[in-house]
Amino acid sequence: MDLDAKTFRSIVNATAGKPAASYGDVPARLTAPEGIALVRLARLAVDADDREDEEEMAFLEKIIAHVCALADITAPPEEALPSDEEERTTKLADIAAALVGKPSAALGYAIAYMMTISDLDVAPIEATFVEDAGEALDIDPDHGDELIATVGELLTPEA
After folding, report:
1. DSSP code, position 110
2. Which of 37, 38, 39, 71 could join 30 via S-S bond, C-beta 3.0 to 4.6 A?
3. CA 47 – CA 42 distance, rounded (Å)
């Protein structure tokens, strides 16, 4: 799955509602703490099914690059992966705390969703992770459905 800068900006605008005209000539549209939290969330989402494939990792790198550019940060160091579901839930709550109540929470939800579909094979545990992310980020389920539909449309190339 591809994610160019224009598509990512469209996703940011549709989810977080912040103009993201370009990366180089405008101030960052995400704060550094938001950017760090979004990168951490993407990394946690990619591990939701306890397996990594080439497509997923390539998509993760694209997400990280776009988020870091938008927040004007360098990628934070990788953290140890959670060893069990309880640790994953704790990490998710910690990450969500930096985003809840901010427009970037919706972007976080969209990123969690994109990461779980990036390998085009959504495992049940990945669907559960997206639901858990929605709860942790305080995303209303109906709004979450709207976000998923919008992101899906933006990611689907026009025929």
Report:
1. H
2. 71
3. 9
